[in-house]
Amino acid sequence: MDLLRFITCGSVDDGKSTLIGRLLYDSESVSLDVLAALEKRQASNGIVDLALLTDGLRAEREQGITIDVAYKYFTTPRRKFIITDAPGHVQYTRNMVTGASNADLAIVLVDARQGVIEQTRRHTLIAALLGIRHFVLAVNKMDLVQYDETIFNQISADYAALTDHFQLPKATAIPLSALNGDNVVTRSQELPWYAAPSLLEHLESVPGSVEVAAAPRFQVQYVIRPQTPELPDYRGYAGQVLSGQYRRGDKVRILPSGQESAIEAIEVSQQEVETATAPQAVVIRLRDDVDVSRGDTIVPLNDEPTLTRELEATLCWMSEQPLWPGRKLLLQHHSALVKAAIPAILHKVNVHTFARAAADSAQLNDIVRVRLKTAVPLAVDNYHQNRATGSFILVDELSGDTVAAGLIGEANANYFTAPTSPPVAFSI
Amino acid sequence: MITPTFDYLDRLEAEAIHILREVAGQFERPALLFSGGKDSIVLTRLAEKAFRPGRFPFPLVHVDTGHNFPEVLAYRDALAEQLGEKLIVRSVEETIKRQRLREPGGKYPSRNPLQTYTLLETIEEFEFDACIGGARRDEEKARAKERIFSVRDEFGQWDPKRQRPELWNIYNGRIQKGENVRVFPISNWTELDVWRYIQRENIALPDIYFGHERTCVVLPSGQLLGLTEHIRLDQDDEIVTRQVRFRTVGDSTCTAAVESDAATVEDIIEDLLLAKVSERGATRLDDNISEAGMEDRKRNGYF
């Protein structure tokens, strides 16, 4: 059994919460006492509102909105699923970016009566920007358009035009009614013209995470040094294989120092193993007595990332205090924390069209392209080639708050255009 | 290249180990909050995988309510001994005396709300900057919205509207003086995942998790509460002896037992696959008080 993480994009009006509720309910992931609590609140009309399964906090229930990213879980005999539920309102680009950062798949929800709207474009483009490769267009509320095939086909065609225009991965369009349960978990008699799998069947069959395909990357999180009489000289570099695979004996380089060594041993749960593959958490020991500390990257000699102090990146600005050029911040690149400055904002990106516009600042929820300098060199990859080593966050040095999500473009280059092996081939 | 396929438990395990190592790398004085319950026991196994052959970079900290199950306390001491790790125990009893708090009243006096006081005192005493806990997002609605690195102010309060966005697997533990971070490495695990992991790793648990005979009080809701000296019995209380087990291990006065013959981890997993009542719903009397019970307690510094 494997794991799939997906994000649901859409607003309350599209029936997003109902859809998640339906997935949990029909896959029998809701317990009786939770249902009883729901029924207690719905006694007046007798219908259980499945949307309430996802509304967590009191403030949200009072206002009927979703404040923040919430996580839900369900398991079928084939898979464990982690649902990231991010609110759909315009002002919540930051939540959508947060949710999409960990997802393998995005369900983009539209109301069959409205079709593809501005919000659909925004959700799709943000999900694609964050590197999601699998898209489902869930055409909901089919019951309200009499399960009309032509309406579904029109919406699918409109959406295909959108993904073609931006050279995004093709989406799988599925007609459904979350309210009635049509085609969510079980196929529906109301949709005789639709012969393909239901939403859940589709979710069970798409490929999961693919960290293995990328170049080998490993970052040291912690140095294990027992310094006991039995192990006086043991030095183990503990960390997670971020992508690719390592093998005992591999010749490696330590970055940023540039020293060379070779892998003496790989340990998983204190057992020596021959290989370590993403996303395994391992301990690596090196053949030579080299200087390695937290935040350093260990990479194979023939497949190295870019080592740079200057890079271009796309930021989603997440702070209420705007970003002005010249700002100094901390940059956290997984376990590496370095000082950084942003000398220039190159342009702002319209999240509905991906058109560029000049900008001299970035406000909350803006997506901007910036030039960045760091105090020490970072070992980075292009985000669209390696989600793990191509991502970072910016942190306000005083408050400690996370103020931006960063996606690394070509380091030391003007712009990144289409990556050579495109999952998503647009440039912004 | 051989590309192994990973089971979902492998992925959850790798994620949790990654989080534990981030705590070790980012904080000066972390602690692992150890309750003796299965979730915190799983955390100690994950910590072994994260840090051996070295020592844990944090002590185990137990807040003893004085109403704990004796089996759990014995297990706690044996485990700390076997791991060779430091165990710090602070008691709610002492906090009540020192802060002149009122003992909870009522028929089933729960010291659960008072744990928060002792926890905050302990954090202050040792200047802990990060406390690792075994909470999971599937337990409760408010938990579903909490970050893996959850920043708390000096009163331990959680503000759901002021949470930091948590992107990719990058965890921001930067805090100001007085603040601390609660860290939940098994946030993405469900109760079933925890049991399957216990099975896979062959982890020993306190006996009370398995079916055993126990004298219980029958609550008005029909739930069973193990009889202890802390419960004030009335004449018309129904006392029964049943074959029961515990699904969660909290304060003995607020943790109900469920009837079960499950003798092994396999039996429990089978039980769970059939069970239709949620873990906290079945056994935690303190959450049922109001629908926003957990949200309120987290805002007040509960972990």
Number of strands of chain A: 23
- Which percent bin holds the helix content of chain B? 25-40%
Secondary-structure-derived class of chain B: alpha/beta
Q: Strand order, biggest sheet of chain B?
A: 3-2-1-4-6-5
Indicate the multimeric state: heterodimer
Total number of beta strands of chain B: 10
Gap between N and C termini of chain B: 44 Å
Biggest interface between protein chains, with counts per chain? Answer: A-B, 71 and 65 residues
**What's the total helix number of chain B?**
9
Distance between the termini of chain A: 37 Å
Q: Write down the overall geometry of chain A.
A: globular
SSE topology string of chain B: HEHEHEHHEEEHEEEEHHH
Mean pLDDT of chain B: 84
Quote the average pLDDT of chain A: 86
Question: Could you characterize the architecture of this molecule?
Answer:
The complex is a heterodimer of chains A (428) and B (303). Chain A is α+β, with helices and mostly antiparallel strands. Helices cover 17% and strands 35% of the residues of chain A. Chain A has seven helices and 23 strands. With 303 residues, chain B is of the alpha/beta class. Chain B has helices at residues 8-26, 38-51, 70-83, 92-99, 112-126, 191-201, 265-274, 279-283, 293-299, and strands spanning 30-33, 60-64, 87-91, 130-132, 149-152, 180-183, 212-218, 224-226, 239-246, 257-259. In chain B, helix 2 (38-51) links the parallel strand 1 and strand 2. In chain B, helix 1 crosses helix 2, helix 4 (92-99) packs across helix 5 and helix 6 (191-201) runs antiparallel to helix 7 (265-274). The longest helix of chain B has 19 residues, at 8-26. The N and C termini of chain B lie far apart (44 Å). The model of chain B is unreliable at 287-291 (pLDDT under 50). The chains are: A alpha+beta (428), B alpha/beta (303). At the A-B interface, helix 2, strand 2, strand 3, helix 4 and strand 9 of A face helix 1 and helix 2 of B.
